[in-house]
Amino acid sequence: MSDPLRLAGVARRYRTEAGALEVLRDADLTIARGEIVALVAPSGTGKSTLLHLAGLLERPDAGEVFIAGQAAGTLDDGARTAIRRNTIGFVYQFHHLLAEFTAVENVMLPQMTAGVAAGQARTRAAELLGTFGLAARLDHRPGKLSGGEQQRVAIARALANSPALLLADEPTGNLDATTAGIVFAQLLAEARGRGLAALIATHNPELAARMDRVVTLRDGRIIPG
To answer: In this structure, what DSSP letter does residue 93 have?
Structure first.
């Protein structure tokens, strides 16, 4: 079985008024099924860019991104969107829930986009939210939920389509320390229980230490911890 994520010699550069800015160069990374990897590096060093490349939200300027063994660099936008929808789950620092929809509806949406019937999507959404202790909050809109509850809904949404790969960019960075610890423990438990590959960016060394291994970014390259 192919690894859920492999980056091979990936480079990414941006044009600025001062010239080309090379954020990533010759970056290599492989994450096996069931492996949870912490990505730790200072702000502005390319963590979000790396996650965007891994999640097929951007294309590399060189190198290749393999998702479950499939080279994604030359795929058209429709094929890349299908891989994101069916294979990858995203969690961000800010929950990005849709304010006009309830918690359960937010978790239903990615499933329905993938063609799941509304009734089946609601059943799965309710089950997922229940695992995060939100069974009594299904019909609450985001504005009626605490920060920790909102992020739990966002994690449930990321898991809704049973991804093989979970990508998280500072998933507890907007929470207080106590709530962050609780939410992160739930995130880890779900990822491990489902056998997911996960790449999780965090500034918190205590959270990073709870993962299987740590990598960092230095001079645009991925360095083992």
So the answer is: S
Question: Which helix (H) or strand (E) is 49 found in, with range?
Answer: helix 47-54
For tokens 């019909």, what's the residue? 139
Can you tell me the distance from the alpha carbon of 67 to that of 72, in angstroms, rounded to the nearest whole number? Answer: 7
Q: What is the mean pLDDT of residues 49-71?
A: 92
Residue 58, judged by CB atoms within 10 A of its CB (0-12, 13-18, 19+), counts as middle
Tokens 């795929």 locate to 75
Q: Residues 211, 36: contact at Cβ < 8 Å?
A: yes
- pLDDT higher than threshold 80 for residue 149: yes
Q: Are 191 and 166 in contact (CB under 8 A)?
A: yes
Instruction: For the full predicted model, state whether its pTM sits above 0.85.
Output: yes
CA atoms within 13 A on the CB side of 154: 27
Go through the domains of the chain in sequence order and give each one's CATH number: 5-98+143-224 (3.40.50.300)
- Determine the pLDDT at residue 225: 67
Name the nearest CA neighbour of 175 among 154, 198, 197, 196: 154
